[in-house]
Amino acid sequence: MYIYELEFKVRDYELDVQGIVNNSVYQNYLEHTRHEFLLSRNVSFADLSKEGIDAVVARIEIAYKNPLRSKDEFVCKLNVKKEGIKYIFNQAIFRKSDNKLCVKAKVTTVVLVHGVLTADFAPFDELVD
Amino acid sequence: MYIYELEFKVRDYELDVQGIVNNSVYQNYLEHTRHEFLLSRNVSFADLSKEGIDAVVARIEIAYKNPLRSKDEFVCKLNVKKEGIKYIFNQAIFRKSDNKLCVKAKVTTVVLVHGVLTADFAPFDELVD
Amino acid sequence: MYIYELEFKVRDYELDVQGIVNNSVYQNYLEHTRHEFLLSRNVSFADLSKEGIDAVVARIEIAYKNPLRSKDEFVCKLNVKKEGIKYIFNQAIFRKSDNKLCVKAKVTTVVLVHGVLTADFAPFDELVD
Amino acid sequence: MYIYELEFKVRDYELDVQGIVNNSVYQNYLEHTRHEFLLSRNVSFADLSKEGIDAVVARIEIAYKNPLRSKDEFVCKLNVKKEGIKYIFNQAIFRKSDNKLCVKAKVTTVVLVHGVLTADFAPFDELVD
Predict the structure, then answer these.
(1) D85-to-B4, D41, D120, D122, D125 alpha-carbon distances in Å
(2) HEC readout, C5-23
(3) Looking at the partner chain, which of A31, A46, A64 has a beta carbon nearest the beta carbon of B23?
(4) What is the pLDDT of residues D4-53, one digit of tens each?
(5) ipTM summary value
(6) B52 in reach of chain D (CB within 8 A)
(7) Domain ranges of chain D
(8) Is C12 a residue of the active site?
(9) Which of B33, C101, D1, D66 is 20 to 30 Å from A90 by CA-CA measure?
(10) Rounded to whole angstroms, what are the CA distances from B17 to A33, C45, D16, D22?
């Protein structure tokens, strides 16, 4: 069901005072995985931005299931669907030691070309299976 | 409808290559506002954590409406409801210059006492109107 | 001796597992103070960057004297000197409760105009006393 | 001259509005490399902290030579010396594509056991060559 995955290891500066990865940091993991997925398909978020093409997150839903801690290794997986003008990334993070689900997320993105919403952005349409 | 609000100003290190505040940073704003709200009611997230009482986010839903940019000042507002064992924070971020809605969020939290889910945490129950 | 100061309060997401503000976060505080100082003199770091003018940090030296913790309020102060082509910001962070020195920093910056080092950048020269 | 190295890739959320990695983020890279080095020698920063043993940075000096950008891969190297009660980490970051030096840093740390400075912390003394 997932078409791309990326491996990570928790970095201690990502922990908060509870000794677990801070909630906002998972968004960083999710974003980096999407961007690396795009790069694996020869689409660069940073280069697009320079050309005035911005993929932006319109909505994010994250369910926090199990916290990551110092030394944890994990894998972030994704697939992508199209619904109208929206490209929807379904993402999940699994801890490697026991394959436990840590985070499940649905990330709804849209594409703006010079600030205007675009219904069909070819490089993204090719990502959708 | 909101019972607490906190003023902020964008810091340039929070911007990404698109020149807008990075999506994950809004979670920092939302969290800081919740913690300052708790402090205003004499509840300290950091102190609770030291005593083994952890308020954790179980689920977050964020709708990104308008991006914040360098120099923007904004206000983050919240209210809190109880549903079963969940304390639900409804939060919104408004840009000060034009009062435009930037972000709307629903943050579902639960309280763990020494790792065990707690149905009634008195200091939080007093926050609910 | 200092010509500008800005007030802050620690945000809990800036703490690490030791319960103190993470070392890297002080660089955020120092940078934000420099940028707000520039804005107070009508110089915008973000706007300059759009025009191809980049003030970049060439060297930073930070002495960590006393750690900041949850709930701490503090003030970040600065002055600026010119040495050759370098603009040198001397910065310090003081905890408000007891006026204790927390961090002392020397930040050496240079200005690049379309990638080329500039000896005299008028808007910065006016900052130097 | 370096006794440990760790490979990284820039993540887009680490970039700022100039399209380069934000200065403070290099401290994250440097810290993560030190902690992974410690782990490779069976010393855990996070576990030590739980036992009341805190390795803290007393001083950091960073020279920024060449900026890292989106997609850049790099390696962070280190060695460690002892001077009096100080453990001094010399660190450098090299871009992989051309082996260019990006950052050079000297990080001076001390060890506190339950808040008291310690002259000889055996697990760290064994790291020093």
Answers:
(1) 48, 20, 7, 12, 10
(2) EEEEECCHHHECCCCEECH
(3) A31
(4) 999 999 999 999 988 999 999 999 999 999 999 999 999 999 899 889 99
(5) 0.95
(6) no
(7) 4-125
(8) no
(9) B33
(10) 17, 14, 5, 10
Which one of C16, C72, C125, C129 is the catalytic residue? Answer: C16
Any CB–CB contact under 8 A between D16 and chain B?
yes
Q: Which of B107, B110, B101, B56 shows the shortest CA–CA distance to B76?
A: B101
In the numeric block, the tokens 């109107």 are attached to B129
List pLDDT tens digits, range D65-91: 999 999 999 999 999 999 999 999 999
Q: Does A39 touch chain D (CB under 8 A)?
A: yes
User: Catalytic amino acids of B?
Assistant: 16
- B13/D24 touch (CB, cutoff 8 Å), yes or no: yes
Q: Give the nearest partner residue to A59 out of B25, B31, B64, using CB atoms.
A: B64
What span, in angstroms and rounded, lies between the C-alpha atoms of B107 and B91?
8
C-alpha distance from residue A4 to each of A36, B15, D40, D57, D88 (Å): 9, 27, 29, 38, 41
The answer to whether the Cβ–Cβ distance between D32 and A19 falls below 8 Å is no
Q: Which tokens in the block code for residue B33?
A: 């506002």
Calculate how close chain D gets to B119, using CA atoms only, in Å.
29
pTM score: 0.96
Question: Which letter does DSSP use for residue B115 in this model?
Answer: T
CATH domain C4-125 topology? Thiol Ester Dehydrase; Chain A (3.10.129)
At C77-98, the pLDDT tens digits run 999 999 999 999 999 999 999 9
CB contact at 8 A, D31 and C24: yes
